[in-house]
Automatic annotation (TrEMBL):
Domain of life: Bacteria
Gene3D superfamilies named in the record: Cell division protein ZapA protomer, N-terminal domain (3.30.160.880)
Source organism (scientific name): Devosia enhydra
UniProt keyword list: Cell cycle, Cell division, Coiled coil, Cytoplasm, Septation
UniProt xrefs under InterPro entries: Cell_div_ZapA-like (IPR007838), Cell_div_ZapA-like_sf (IPR036192), Cell_div_ZapA_N (IPR042233)
Full protein name: Cell division protein ZapA
Source taxonomy: Bacteria, Pseudomonadati, Pseudomonadota, Alphaproteobacteria, Hyphomicrobiales
Function: Activator of cell division through the inhibition of FtsZ GTPase activity, therefore promoting FtsZ assembly into bundles of protofilaments necessary for the formation of the division Z ring. It is recruited early at mid-cell but it is not essential for cell division.
Amino acid sequence: MPEVNVEINGRKYRMACEDGQEPHLLSLAERFNRQIEQLKGAFGEIGDNRLTVMAGIAVLDELGEAERRIASLKQDVADLTAAGEALSQEAEDLERRFARRLAEAARKVEAIATAIDDTGAPQPQG
């Protein structure tokens, strides 16, 4: 299992990760370190443990907000999918009704054409 060295708040840590995940782990550590640096800028030197806990809570807050947003977007997708299915069903129903009415109109036109043909046909003499 590969290991990488990360630096958080000026301290180096050796961490193991899955093969090929080294760049991802380094990126996460850099992001977390930036969070700590931002907190240090806002609150000053408040102690390593407290700073790390605050950074962890801030990251979890961001994660919670992202999870809520994802849940909202999933609901939006479900709502839009249901609406699309309803519209599709409505379009199919309209198409069936239109086809029935068109067939009915064609029968009527055919009946009128037959009546006209019968009216205009020469009468047998006798």
